[in-house]
Amino acid sequence: xxxxxxxxxxxxxxxxxxxxxxxxxxxxxxxxxxxxxxxxxxxxxxxxxxxxxxxxxxxxxxxxxxxxxxxxxxxxxxxxxxxxxxxxxxxxxxxxxxxxxxxxxxxxxxxxxxxxxxxxxxxxxxxxxxxxxxxxxxxxxxxxxxxxxxxxxxxxxxxxxxxxxxxxxxxxxxxxxxxxxxxxxxxxxxxxxxxxxxxxxxxxxxxxxxxxxxxxxxxxxxxxxxxxxxxxxxxxxxxxxxxxxxxxxxxxxxxxxxxxxxxxxxxxxxxxxxxxxxxxxxxxxxxxxxxxxxxxxxxxxxxxxxxxxxxxxxxxxxxxxxxxxxxxxxxxxxxxxxxxxxxxxxxxxxxxxxxxxxxxxxxxxxxxxxx
Amino acid sequence: xxxxxxxxxxxxxxxxxxxxxxxxxxxxxxxxxxxxxxxxxxxxxxxxxxxxxxxxxxxxxxxxxxx
Amino acid sequence: xxxxxxxxxxxxxxxxxxxxxxxxxxxxxxxxxxxxxxxxxxxxxxxxxxxxxxxxxxxxxxxxxxxxxxxxxxxxxxxxxxxxxxxxxxxxxxxxxxxxxxxxxxxxxxxxxxxxxxxxxxxxxxxxxxxxxxxxxxxxxxxxxxxxxxxxxxxxxxxxxxxxxxxxxxxxxxxxxxxxxxxxxxxxxxxxxxxxxxxxxxxxxxxxxxxxxxxxxxxxxxxxxxxxxxxxxxxxxxxxxxxxxxxxxxxxxxxxxxx
Lengths: 371, 67, 259
Fold this sequence. Notes:
The complex is a heterotrimer of chains A (371), B (67) and C (259).
Chain A: H1 3-11, H2 15-20, H3 24-32, H4 38-45, H5 53-68, E1 71-81, H6 106-117, E2 123-128, H7 137-148, E3 153-157, H8 163-172, E4 174-178, H9 186-192, H10 201-205, H11 207-213, E5 218-222, H12 230-247, E6 252-256, H13 275-288, E7 293-296, H14 302-308, E8 315-317, H15 348-357, E9 361-363
Parallel strand pairs in A: 1-2, 1-8, 1-9, 2-3, 3-4, 4-5, 5-6, 6-7, 7-8
Chain B: E1 2-5, E2 8-11, H1 19-26, E3 33-37, E4 40-42, E5 57-65
Parallel strand pairs in B: 1-5
Antiparallel strand pairs in B: 1-2, 3-4, 3-5
Chain C: E1 6-8, E2 11-13, E3 17-20, H1 27-37, E4 41-48, E5 67-71, H2 78-90, E6 96-99, H3 112-124, E7 128-133, H4 137-145, E8 152-153, H5 167-176, E9 182-184, H6 190-199, E10 203-206, H7 208-211, H8 216-236, H9 254-258
Parallel strand pairs in C: 3-4, 3-10, 4-5, 5-6, 6-7, 7-8, 9-10
Antiparallel strand pairs in C: 1-2
Helix pairs in contact in C: 1-8, 2-3, 6-8
């Protein structure tokens, strides 16, 4: 059994009709309950719930404070290779985009790492495009080894792997896995992933649980909001997160809420996700799964990010560069093209100061790896 | 011969050589009890067939009220 | 209303009050109690027989319709519990076993680790196993995972009649564990049993409270009614209690400027 079986049970439902049928009473009931079930989650994601954002926010804030306190974990992404064999319609790294590709040598990885570590951050997220040739598991292991010298927590956001490959990474010291399904709409998924290994919907869908089974401490999932109908995608993110939490009670499950941003390519996305929608998504997730980690990347601008913090965010990326080699400012070093445009370009000290102003404690180093 | 019954060392009269004879000797009601010899449960039908030997460990139990 | 039977160990149980048979003044009273309670599941124990004492077979007093669950009480470790289980089965008492392993004579609290060991082995040998345990979520998970038919967390120590002192932990177990939860030990009055059922327990087990009461037969009847009431309440859906305080300033006001 895997999440795919759960997914199949829910996938053909008439979600639009169900969401449209939600009443104020359903939402009020959901707001009263201590433990929400799926129909409560659905109610909170409905168009009707837009009128209840403030009470939802109050409840979400209370839950987040109770379960996470006032600590916000900061991390930085490091792109080590943008070689990619997939041709995803929504991504700058698409194989169809003619551009210079770059893969960092281990020495370059170390130099990037040094830049990031100087800010005080100790949590890093390593990203690559999908290329078994240019960024195979062996390369990922080598990079991990280099990163572990300066960071206490190394997570990866790379192409879907087998359980054995995840176990290899775990043995090297990787403790977190981030993997977005992009969209849970299988038909759309096939369209936006016209070629490459990423085309395999099910293999990707089952990857987070393989990571958990391989003993990752943290597993983060999500959908790229705006590709398909966001309400339906978030419904599945919630289902998926709850499934993972139930199957792997000792793994920290988290969700991210990346919104489609300007990038190199012409794909428009089906659906506009407004700021209000974003708020509703975060609130609904928080209420449905109180212990869910919720991460926010630098896709969102600083003012918006700051306002979202009390609503349930527990992790934020900071001081980010989304291009390969983007941190190293040494003369003559070429950066790759960014994967997406960054909207929050504040430095880490700036972000930390802002968090403190709001009464939150930025955490740069959550735990120390065993000796 | 000497055997252990319910943890206590006892000497058996010469006439008692099988489990069946032991039960009769003690005045026990067969339908109320279960017997184990050397950690093996012996069914009632087999009591006449089981010969006792020196140092055998015998447990005789019955069902009682319990929580 | 649809039939609300408890499916457990391959049987359909109608009465969710399980009754123990110890501490009664006589077997005859015990039998009356079981009939008054309408009990479907009954526990008995195995004890060494002293040849000089006249024996009765307690099973003769248990109504034919009852399913007998053998309690491994007296076992101080897994090995002893397993022996008792095998003895009981060989004696023709069926294969429902309540694993009770206690090495603590002061409070009579169960040893979760030995209980888990016994559970694992007995499940493999084909018994229908009900481990009696101190409420611990990870232990309960392991017991459920290795095939226990239900998990029986204590309400409060055996014989104390202090009620559901472990409510918080039992509540968590009910939410997280997929097998039925049967609270056992320490329930002192019918409202305790009712509370367990309202929370979502599959059943409760009561012995001491009934056996030592002034009128065991009537008390058993009261317990039985309480269990039914609690169960009905749970099935109808309990009202939720609203969460805590509200923050003073609005959290989504910033949205108005942008939309």
